[in-house]
Amino acid sequence: MENIPTELRVLVPLLNKWCISDDVERARLLEKTSKNKKEELMNTVNPLLPKINTFLDSFGDDPLSDEAILLGDLAQLVCELNLEE
Fold it and tell me: What domain of life does the native source organism fall in (predicted)?
């Protein structure tokens, strides 16, 4: 995870649980998650979404690193939660 920018490393503990690229699996996880836990996740990740986007954009046309893919999955999940609100 050393390839993750310093300002985004606070998200590393969230990656194993929340970074699910499969839509069905992600939906199942969210169904089992309490409203308080969802709010906590959103409060942690939302302020960092612009920095995640900047990091992802930094790859340009190059393939994303594994860490970038995980952060992208986390950002997608939180954006979906934002739409539910």
Answer: Bacteria
